[in-house]
Design brief:
This protein is mostly helical. It contains 1 helix and no strands.
Amino acid sequence: MDISIVKVVQINLLMQINKLQASFIIFKELKRNIIDCLS
């Protein structure tokens, strides 16, 4: 297998993980804001 292909796959995986973490953080913030509004 070509090393450059492996690197591209690793970079794509890292980017997807970062997106997942970012949306999870945004979701937690939104949930906290909604709870603050309701209380």
